[in-house]
TrEMBL record:
Biased composition (Basic and acidic residues): 23-34, 50-63
Region (Disordered): 19-63
InterPro entries: CsbD, YjbJ_sf
Annotated CsbD-like domain residues: 6-57
Name this protein carries in UniProt: CsbD family protein
Organism: Sphingomonas morindae
Lineage: Bacteria, Pseudomonadati, Pseudomonadota, Alphaproteobacteria, Sphingomonadales
Gene3D superfamilies reported in the protein's UniProt record: YjbJ
SUPFAM superfamilies with a match to the protein in the record: Hypothetical protein YjbJ
Family of the protein in this entry: Belongs to the UPF0337 (CsbD) family.
Amino acid sequence: MSELTDKIKGVANEITGKAKQAVGRESDNGRLEAEGAAQEGKGHLQQAKGDVKGAVKGVVDRA
């Protein structure tokens, strides 16, 4: 996947995760809230992966 694709998927997972957490809190569904937290975390990691790819590409392009 490209840097941009990783970042877009990361943002999508963060938004979805936050929504699941909110629904889980409002409906008193701990499992859904935890699932949302995990998905939000996955989104953070995907964005970081995109950042790393961009940094590596920048170094390679300068070499």
